[in-house]
Amino acid sequence: MLPRRRDGDGRGLGRHRRRVRRGGAQARSLGTDPLGFGQPVRIQDPALWPTLRGQWNSRWFPHATVDVSVQTSLVMPGLTALPLQGAPGG
């Protein structure tokens, strides 16, 4: 039986979502764009990018809204890299 999905309870996906949000907020407060969110802007509108480039980290990126969505799939459930404690051979 697979474990139930945990979301928003502080122990599962909700915890990771909060960590990502905190990391994004910290990056914006430091005036950095560590994941390169400016690159799609540069690619989509190359004529506009030279105007934005000098102020991207200080003026534009701090006001950007970032939505994080994660999808996962189990390819080989039950397969582990290390033997389980208490299991035969483990």
Distance between the termini: 22 Å
Low-confidence stretches: none
Radius of gyration equals: 20 Å
- String of helices and strands: HHHH
3D architecture notes:
This protein is mainly α and 90 residues long. The chain has a domain of 51 residues. The chain has four helices and no strands. The chain is elongated and about 65 Å long. It starts with 12 loop residues before the first helix and ends in a 30-residue tail after the last helix. The model has no long low-confidence stretch (mean pLDDT 76).
List the helices and strands and how they pair.
Blueprint: H1 13-30, H2 38-44, H3 49-53, H4 56-60
Keywords summarizing the entry:
single chain, 90 residues, mainly alpha, 4 helices, 0% strand, elongated
Summed up:
With 90 residues, this protein is mainly α. It contains 4 helices and no strands.
